[in-house]
User: What shape does this take?
Amino acid sequence: MASPQGSNQADQPHLVTLVLQSKKALQHGEQLCSKANALTNASAQCAVDVLALDAKVKWIGEAVIEQLRLAASVAKSIEIKRSQLEGQIREWDTVRSQRTTALDTILEALDTQLVPPDFHQTSSDSSLFGSQSSLDKQDGIIDPQLSPSATVRDDPIHRKVRHDVDRTKWKTLRDFVDEAAIEEVLDAVESDRTRLDDIMSSTYHYPETLSNAVTSIRDSLPTTRVFSSIEPLLSAQENTTAEMAKHLESLAAHYEQMAGALHDSEDGEIFSDEDMKEMNRDTDELPAIMAELEDGVKTVQEAHESLIQAKDTVQERLDVSNGILDNLDELGEIMTDMLDKQQEVESDCEDLLDGLQQRLLVVEELHHRFVLYQSSFNKLLVEIARRGQYREAAEKIVEGMMAQLQALTEGKCTIYPTFVLPIRWVAPAVC
Assistant: This one.
């Protein structure tokens, strides 16, 4: 390393400059590494915050999903209960259709059966549709016109058949039915049935409303997690700071070398031109090292900013999750009201269905009554026809007997003169 004294003196200022440059680079490098270290520590805390916030979001999401399952089961329960009620209503509608159809059928049948005017236009005592009081007179003597055989002698049907009459103006059995009372019964049935529809319609939208609310809340839940983006950022920071630490060590080593060279130079040691070239070359590399440190700080800064952005993103998701919890609380109150209303609807529907069943019994009773009414009238017609046949047969017998009696009388009158002349003085006259 020895060289001429003149050369050494000429290079001494340059050596001091190299030392100053090396010291300045070391100080700047320490600042950059200190800044990178602070950013790394802040990034680590930020990463912890991100993971903690993400854990809260995850916990809230799981709790919300569980509550949504409960809400979905409530919607399904309401739908099942409504289906059961609708099934009962359909069964009642089927029975109602059968009963009302049967009633309409018997009324139409009554509308086709003509009633002779004599059945309802005569006095109340003799009309078939008149008073049903006792036929006995006050003196105990039965009027032969009101006796059970009176219909044989005075048959309104057969008597009218003998004449050409216009039956288009005859009344029918339905004319004697209280149509207003029937309409009142049917109107009451229809009114209660309409009330039943109104009650059922009040909860018609419940299942769909709950299902839509569940779907909306589920779709609004945050789903993307940040673990995949945190680990590369932390790894990048770790690798960058490790490289920066190496660069800082090399800066410190270079400064120590240059400071030692300056101290040796002050002690009288003379460096060769080759040594000076090597020290200059090492010093010339300082800007490149500083640029790498600057890039390292920039990389750490970018990773830190990404973590801050990730924290902000997770915080936003947490805020959204808290809003979802508020919506879930509101949905819980709505479900409670819906369940209470559904129970009220079920109770009202059951009461109405019981009342409607009773009204159908009234309709069935009306049908049974009119069937008996028709049957009794038909039996009456059959009995009148039978009595008419009995009367005709009796008349034929009487007519035959009268003819025989007439023949006998005429024969007796014919042979009487031959028989009575010899004994005129004995037998009285009979012809």
Observations:
- Confidence is low (pLDDT under 50) at residues 1-13, 126-162.
